[in-house]
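Re: that chain you flagged

S.,

Sorry for the slow reply, it's been a week of failed gels. I finally had a moment to sit down with the sequence you sent. For the record, here it is as I used it:
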Amino acid sequence: MYPKFVQELHKMQNILIIGGSGFIGTNLVDFYLHQEGYNILNLDSAPPRNPAHAAIWQKADLMDKAGIKAAITGFDPDFVFHMAARTDLDERKSISGYAANIDGVSHLISALRQCTRLKRVIFTSSMLVCSVGYIPKNDQDYCPPNLYGESKVQTEKIIRAAGELPFTWCIIRPTSIWGPWFGTPYRDFFDIVMQKKYVKIGGKVAVKTFGFVGNAVYQIRSLLHADSELVHTKTFYIGDHPPLNINEWADEIAHQLHIPLKQFPLAIFKTAAIAGDLLTKLGIPFPITSFRLKNMQTDNIIPQLKDTYQIAPAPPYSMQEGISITLSWLKKHQ
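Prediction finished late last night. Pasting the structure tokens below so you have them in one place:
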């Protein structure tokens, strides 16, 4: 006979968040830590961004096949969020630099097959399995713009090639997510506006699908608890509707900060971008390059977001509320 506290723990549902020290993972951990009936574990190679999460963090590396298997099967999860990945775009030489997104996923699936209580897994990919502005014809139509995007294509292919798995699963592709605990590039965007250094571009400015992280957590947990037939083997984008005009987004941030914003003609930005290209080649950082300028002018609207909204139809936060929450967090974590 097990002690009473062990029996009670077993009645709780075990939620495993792999990569819970990252941006979205931190917000997922925070949400479930405040819900009753869940036993939470964060497996991550890095310590938590939020020091309050230290007690439920266990160091683990997806590239350590035996170690990740022992950690996962030892916890015996009911539900798994796979958020861990190398997410920067800095690799230029070989896709092997993103081995955690490829071999790591194979190691993870091997471990998940051994879990006895597992009901559902949400695997995280990226919208960059397709270039900005490219609208895929279906879930397996890919057009990656860089090695990171290609590594996430491999992530999805490995999952789909795994055959029949003994649990329900789906894939999520986060869009441009922002909010508390974020980093580059949108933390930089907020910082520049707060420092009164942001200058709006005259002329055409991109309209993009962004997502406040509070709404992203709502969408992800809705997918976790939706009926199996609605989500199994499917792919869902994570983000907010309607898309945002970047200048309007900056205007609202500035409005809440009670500061003015300047606007310069597009020609000035083009000249600055050329200078930025030259400085970047010399190893000197510069805030604007031709690549960044093009990105700021290229629309990226995700029509497939409607599939997510069928599962999670009422995101809890408006853009204005998300900005207010983010600014409050930034003031505490400068």
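What I noticed first: The chain has 13 helices and 13 strands.

Talk soon,
D.
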